[in-house]
Amino acid sequence: MSEKSISRSRRNSLKRSLASSSSISDAKRRKSEHVKKFTEMALDDVEQIFQKSRDRLNEAEELYQDAEKARTEKLETYMDATKAMTGAHQALSSAMIRKANATKDVARLEMIKDAREAIQKRDDLQSQVDKQKKELLAVETKLLMWENIANMAVENLKGAPVPVSGVDIASKKRYKVLCDGLSQLPFYYP
Q1: What does the pLDDT read at residue 166?
Q2: CA angle 133, 135, 136 (to 5 degrees)
Q3: CB 127 within 8 A of CB 148
Q4: Is 190 a member of any domain?
Q5: Block means of pLDDT (10 residues each) for the chain, length 190 residues?
Q6: For residue 21, what pLDDT is reported?
Q7: Residue 134 lies in a domain
Q8: 163 found inside a domain
Q9: Structural domain for 176, as ranges
Q10: In 3D, which of 157, 180, 154, 182 has the Cα closest to residue 168?
Q11: Which of 23, 69, 97, 188 is in Cβ range 3.0-4.6 Å of 182 for a Cys bridge?
């Protein structure tokens, strides 16, 4: 530090010490004046001063009680607001849970609906398959029947007597039955 700053700090500390000692001496002087003033007062005047002090103390006590009551009311209001806010948060949480559950229920219902539609489609396809199986069985039965008729006609033709005049009446009848049976087949074109 430079010499100027050192000398300045010494002067400032000296001023502070002088100021503090002068303020202490002023306080002592005022106290002694106050004590002297009280000792020279009449007893009634001192009693009045004490009464005024008591009244002011009572007023201060009432003001303190009012402030304490207002503080308590504000605290109760704050607590009520906190309870209401907590209740609102709980209601919000419950509503969110209910919404989530409802969303799950809707998803489940949609899955059930889709499953029912799939089952209905499967049943429809199964009934179509069954119908086609029946139709195929009927066609196979007819084919088998016509195959048997054709085999019987071929057997009849093989065992037919040779006509003397070229045409036998029984052969004509068998040929007609054979042609009638073959004409009913879907693949036969005479």
Answers
A1: 46
A2: 60
A3: no
A4: no
A5: 58 56 77 72 78 90 92 91 90 91 90 93 93 89 85 74 49 62 54
A6: 66
A7: yes
A8: yes
A9: 41-183
A10: 157
A11: 188
